[in-house]
Amino acid sequence: MKYVVCVPDGAADEPVGELGGQTPLEAAAMPTVAALAARGEVGRAATIPAGFPPGSDVGNLSILGYDPARYHTGRAPIEAAAMGLHLQPDQVAYRCNLVTVSPDGTMADFAGGHPSTEAAAEVVAALDAELGGDGLEFHSGVQYRHILVAPAARADADCTPPHDLTGKPAVLPRGPSAGFLTQLMDASRAVLARFPDLAATQIWLWGQGRQPTIPSFRDTYGLDARLVSAVDLVRGLGALARIPVVTVEGATGWYDTNYEGKRDACLQALADGADLFLIHVEASDEAGHAGDVAAKVEALENWDRRILGPLVDGLDGLGPWRLLLLPDHPTSLRTRTHTSDPVPYLLVDSAEDGPGGAYNEAAVAGRPSLPGHELMGRLTGRTPTSA
Ligand SMILES: [Zn+2]
After folding, report:
1. How far does the centroid of ligand 1 lie from the alpha carbon of residue 285, in Å?
2. Environment class of residue 277 by beta-carbon count within 10 Å: exposed (0-12), middle (13-18) or buried (19+)?
3. Angle between helices 259-271 and 309-316 (to 10 degrees)
4. What are the tens digits of pLDDT across the range 332-367?
5. Ligand 1: distance of its center to the CA of 271 in Å?
6. Do 13 and 25 contact (CB within 8 A), yes or no?
7. Which residues surround ligand 1, an ion (CB under 5 A)?
8. What's the 59 CA to ligand 1 centre distance in angstroms?
9. How far apart are CA 257 and CA 259, in angstroms?
10. Does the global pTM surpass 0.90?
11. Order of strands across the sheet with 369-371?
């Protein structure tokens, strides 16, 4: 049996006026999804447990079959894992954005003007030289996204994600480690001032957590899995669950990503002996954040035409298969941000027909919502050993 998990990031949504009151999932032409839904099982899944921030880290951890309530320690350690960092038990990782704060204290840009990765690496090296030491290490990542490793004693603080502050007063951390964090963010201004070509004015620390102890996917589900994603958070989850991450040329995390390449990587890995493959595509989430209705619909139609149609044909050639499709969380075109609402899921077995239905938000609105992390067990027919 081969298993495929399809994750159109942020695909679920609310009815949209421009789409005549339909959601993107209703409005998009998705004939393959419709055919699969008609012979499969549709339902509702809570990928974001109550009390958790509706992020891709939490949602994709659920989809991989791990209960966030048990395994999620924060967003930064997952990104740190994607960068190849392994935290010691006495360390905490903070996400360290390069941000632009206006002189009046407004968060003007949580992405610091999107510096190039190369330019940002120079800044992070300077931060490490001047503010590092004494257990503090700055590690450079991609563009504005970096990591600070600090002693675990500095972990206790309530920090606001900078993308939630855009155009608003920059809210400083609260709690026992607030003074330490505020001092460090203040001290970073003098370092950033030496890079006048960059729009970023300082660092912003948030999303902290200790190293999560996630048992390997193989130990948990007894299956050999692979995944493809252009997004650090998903790649980091792969690293933590010891799921090898397949690299696909042209996988950009943007609208123009290589849909066919991801599909073919999936079929190739399964043909080569992998049991399960997860395909993650970020485009629908980016369109949601941009408030771009047409781009979100097109991203879903790309899933159907460029991945799912040929994928199903390819899977039929490999033998019996089961497929699970669901987003990690909704991303609202109206508010341009994530929500915690349950998402519709679709589960299909190549040999056994389900009750059938339609795959969209309204069609499953009355259903009870299953904990998202239980779907992996339903897909694979296996009881996880520890998740
Ligand atoms: Zn997401």
Report:
1. 6
2. buried
3. 10
4. 999 988 999 999 999 999 999 999 999 999 999 999
5. 28
6. yes
7. 9-10, 56, 285, 328
8. 7
9. 6
10. yes
11. 225-228, 276-281, 2-8, 321-325, 343-349, 41-46, 369-371
